[in-house]
Write a structure and sequence with these properties.
By secondary structure, the protein is of the alpha+beta class. The chain has one domain. It contains two helices and four strands; from the N terminus they run ββββαα. The strands form two sheets. The protein has a two-stranded antiparallel sheet. Strands 3-4 form a two-stranded antiparallel ribbon. Strand 1 and strand 2 form a beta hairpin. The longest helix has 18 residues.
Length: 81
């Protein structure tokens, strides 16, 4: 009997949940071998929220930079066209 390949597995281990989860619970990551993120979507979102709570000044600076880029890109455009 032929062993199933890793590509055919329908679950993946999440190090935060410490349990196998269906692959539909993982986002895409083209840089990883299997094309999926290391953490499931729920754990990744929780990690991001925690990081944002722990780094409010960085979040504020990054948002300001993003808004400045958007305003600069849209300068002179009529929003009603």
């Amino acid at each position: 009997m032929v062993a199933p390949s890793k590509a055919l597995t329908r679950s993946k281990y999440c190090p935060d949940c410490e349990a196998p989860r269906p692959i539909s619970c993982f986002g895409r990551n083209r840089q990883s071998k299997n094309g999926l993120h290391y953490y499931c979507k729920e754990c990744a979102a929780a990690r991001q929220r925690k990081w944002a709570r722990d780094n409010p000044e960085t979040v504020k600076r990054m948002r300001g930079e993003y808004l400045a880029r958007i305003h600069e890109a849209n300068a002179g455009r009529d929003p009603y066209e």
